[in-house]
Design brief:
This is Enamine deaminase RidA. By secondary structure, this protein is an alpha+beta fold. The protein is about 25% helix and about 30% strand.
Amino acid sequence: MAQRDVVFPPGRQALYERNRYSPAIRCNGLLFVSGQVGSREDGSPEPDLEKQVRLAFDNLNGILQAAGCTFDDVIDVTVFIVDPEPKFERIWKVVPEYWGNAPHPTLTAVGVTWLYGFDFEIKVIAKLPEATAD
């Protein structure tokens, strides 16, 4: 097996190593980003929902930047929301602050019962800058 081309955001490598997963992998012109949550520096959940969503996007953007990408390079998004019915509108008020320009990426939203103490998680696939030819 070829070695994985892992992308680590600055200052959080120990957190990923402790939890035994890669934040993102470059492969065939794409960046596959693991689910990002609104974790504080120590990995604990931010209790305020809107702040948690902002932190999740900040953590996502840190990984995208480490790979030379922005949210405008994102082509596919999956979000996971614990108990989405009462939370969706509050979450979706925050999303446009980070979402990027139209046309927007594809989106799949999934309601879940548990996210390790978090209420929101976002994972994406982005096109790497050096892979811009169609």
